[in-house]
Design brief:
By secondary structure, the protein is mostly helical. The chain contains 1 helix and no strands. The longest helix has 40 residues. It is rod-shaped.
């Protein structure tokens, strides 16, 4: 012997809870998507890099190596035969390697 009015109130409350739960899930999903899009947009910025173009080219030729027989301890006798390495000069160009992002 249940009260029909009590059953109706219970059913209305159950429907109300279902509607509120569905609305909360939809709102949470929308907010998650919005924050994910915001986070993705803020971490992938576009960087503009200006390239310097050089019109002057320099041709470098390697000197002819002097060959000595295997096992020989002979050293060049004149200064013109001695090899000198060119001086290293620092470049004013920025480094080519770039780290970050994929």
């Amino acid at each position: 012997m249940s009260n029909p009015q009590a059953a109706e109130i219970r059913d209305q409350a159950s429907r109300r809870v279902r509607r509120i739960t569905a609305a909360a899930i939809a709102a949470a999903t929308a907010l998650t998507a919005a924050f994910a899009g915001l986070a993705a947009a803020s971490t992938h910025t576009v960087k503009t890099v200006a390239k310097k173009t050089s019109t002057a080219t320099k041709t470098v030729t390697a000197p002819e190596p002097s060959l000595t027989p295997s096992g020989s301890t002979a050293t060049p006798s004149t200064p013109s035969e001695q090899q000198s390495s060119p001086a290293v000069t620092p470049s004013s160009e920025p480094p080519v390697a770039v780290t970050g992002g994929s």
